[in-house]
Every structure is written in C-alpha cells, then in structure tokens.
Amino acid sequence: MKKYILSLIMAALVVGLSPVMLPVSVQAQKQYVKKVVDRNGRVRYVRVAKPSYYRRHRNRINMAVGTGGGALIGGILGGKKGALIGAGVGLGSSALYTYKLNKKKRVYKKVRR
C-alpha cells in the first residue's frame, strides 16, 4: 500500500512541476500604439509600454481569487453546501470590490526609443 501512495505522490509531483520545467517563450510585442488627438486636431500615434498580466486581466483574477477564497472558507466551515454558499458570497464580494470600490484606472507610460 505504501508503494502505491508513494508512486501516486511522485506522479503528482512530476505532473505538477512539468509546466515549470518547460522553456520560456519570448514575447515579440512589448509595446502598444495609442492614438492621441492634439488640441489642434492632429492625430498622432504614441508608443506605450505593454501593461502587466495582472493589469490586463485584473477583473477576472480578482473574481477568481474571491470565489476560490469564499469556497475554501465555506468548505472548511460547512462542507459541500457551505463551499457552494461561500463561493457565492466570495463572488459577490469580489465583484463589489472590483467593479464599485476599486475601479480600474488605465495609465499609459510613454516609451522612448
């Protein structure tokens, strides 16, 4: 029995660590172009830095973390039904935080060549 448990743990470690061992790909596009209209009505295109992964997917990440945290706490306190209730409460509270309390503010940084 111990051999099966040990082999199961080793297989889980190999599967869990395989994404870490893969080679890192290089992103080709690190800059965006933003359209800017001057006071004179002229249109210019300004290069701006690419936002971070969290900045681009902030809403989804906050909702997922809130839902997972609520489900975890609800599961610890009340089992399966508590996990479902906790996931709903976590989703609602993270939606309130993301969309009402801490709205997204876009900041563009200029990139010089």
Structural class: alpha+beta
Helix content percent band: 55-70%
Overall average residue pLDDT: 81
Largest beta sheet, briefly?
A: 2 strands, antiparallel
Strand content: 5-15%
Ranges where pLDDT stays below 50 over 5 or more residues in a row are: none
Order of helices and strands: HEEHH
Number-wise, the strands total 2
Distance between the termini: 63 Å
**Alpha-carbon Rg, integer:** 22 Å
The largest sheet has its strands arranged as: 1-2
**Helix count from the secondary structure assignment:** 3
Based on Cα principal axes, name the global outline: flat
Protein model, in words:
The protein is an alpha+beta fold and 113 residues long. Strands 1-2 form a two-stranded antiparallel ribbon. The longest helix has 44 residues. The N and C termini lie far apart (63 Å).
